[in-house]
């Protein structure tokens, strides 16, 4: 068994203190997201983990890409018939997680999810490369398939079918808006005394608190 006891680093790049934070968590997210986007050490600032709860009560986590954020919340796109889509249909709550290790930061977001308007899903779908559009049509996401060739043959067929025409967005593919009700910002600090600032939605206002690390 490999001993991992000494696998640790010292966190000392930044701090998170009440006198410097925004009072609205979306504005605080924007500041941190811009830092991550502009950092040459972060390859995909918009990569996030999305955790949903399945019918057996066990959470399932996967990485997806954040495609937009507004004062209302965070938007990503997926197949509605996928495991995550079915889980969201049964339980609208989910947890989003951003981790930017080179900045020694993470953000944990608890949210209620809802489908975005169809015109938004249409607009994003048709902004994607045609290969990505076809991939969304080809893949029966999360369903068992016989082999890799099943997908590749289906892709070839669709490439011919839509060679000179627009690919229609599948009815079972679109976006979700995650409306947050709790957002925690975590900044690594020396001696494991990390900064944890949590915003909790109470009625229409955000309460700001500090948590022990």
UniProtKB/TrEMBL annotation:
GO terms for molecular function: FMN binding; pyridoxamine phosphate oxidase activity. FMN binds at residues 62-67, 77-78, 83-84, 106, 141-142, 186, 196. The keyword Flavoprotein applies. One of its GO terms (biological process) is pyridoxine biosynthetic process. Residues 42-160 form the Pyridoxamine 5'-phosphate oxidase N-terminal domain. Substrate binds at residues 8-11, 67, 124, 128, 132, 192-194. The keyword Oxidoreductase applies. It catalyses: pyridoxamine 5'-phosphate + O2 + H2O = pyridoxal 5'-phosphate + H2O2 + NH4(+); pyridoxine 5'-phosphate + O2 = pyridoxal 5'-phosphate + H2O2. Its EC number is 1.4.3.5. InterPro entries: Pyridox_Oxase, Pyridox_Oxase_CS, Pyridox_Oxase_N, Pyridoxamine_oxidase_dimer_C, Split_barrel_FMN-bd. Homodimer. Catalyzes the oxidation of either pyridoxine 5'-phosphate (PNP) or pyridoxamine 5'-phosphate (PMP) into pyridoxal 5'-phosphate (PLP). Belongs to the pyridoxamine 5'-phosphate oxidase family. This is Pyridoxine/pyridoxamine 5'-phosphate oxidase. It comes from Chryseobacterium artocarpi.
